[in-house]
Amino acid sequence: MVQGHIFFFLVVVVQLFTGVLANGLIMVVNAIDLIIRRKMAPLDLLLSCLATTRIILLMFVFLAQLDIFCLEKYSLFANSIAFVFFINELSLWLATWLSVFYCAKIATISHPLFLWIKMRISRLVPWLILGSVLHATTIALIHGRETSTIPKQVFTHYFSENSTQVKQIHVLPLSIFILGLTLPSLIFIVAVLLLIFSLCNHCWQMRTMAGTREPSRHGHISAMLSILSFFILYFTHYMVALVVSTQVFHLGSISFLFCTLVIGIYPSLHSVILILGNPKLKQNAKMFIVHCKCCHCVRA
Fold it and tell me: Any stretches that span the bilayer, and where are they (predicted)?
């Protein structure tokens, strides 16, 4: 058991380092652009806000693992559960709007509602972010009010064999939590499916046309793989968050540690994928790596 805890803790440390580095790069690059140009593009604003929430979420995942590894009584994590709920909810909403933004900009659908969104999505981004913050705050406050007297019982429950009483207490907060996760997930799934359908349709049309260029087809395949990876990571994060919320695993168990590990994969790995798929971020990442190598050579 101790060896398992050590393994999961080390993996979470790697997750934290990777996630902070990737998301920090996104924030720094966009901040420099803001200083130079005195304005920030809607996509950059959305990515910066998403990167901020992901760094905070990764830190809480690390703290949860650290508490378990150090055999603490989970007081820090228990007292911060409402804020963790807020950050996770906000992060999911921002990722959802990112998928909607990509769908509106890339997909070609002739429906009037889609065309209306396509024309206005850039102007809607700040309002979508503000609405997400207000929605996540409201849901977190309601959830926090319902669980204000529960945290100690909850975390004691993970070490107790008798879980009937705590599960009865948590029916309403659990419903609020599931509702908060499900709504953005449904919007995300619709946006991703529309985007995949549009890309598949476009690839088929290009394939039937004479003289189709291979690089163009390769670009669409790369975009498809990027979207599919986004979908898989997002959906996995959503499902594991639901499993954790049902309290089917004890807090110190290997199963719970594995769930927290999976939760931490999404905000770290997807940010790396975002950097690789964004020319500006990718170029700055290469410059950062070259700079680090040069500094290492100078010190050597």
Answer: 6-31, 43-64, 76-103, 124-142, 176-200, 221-242, 254-277
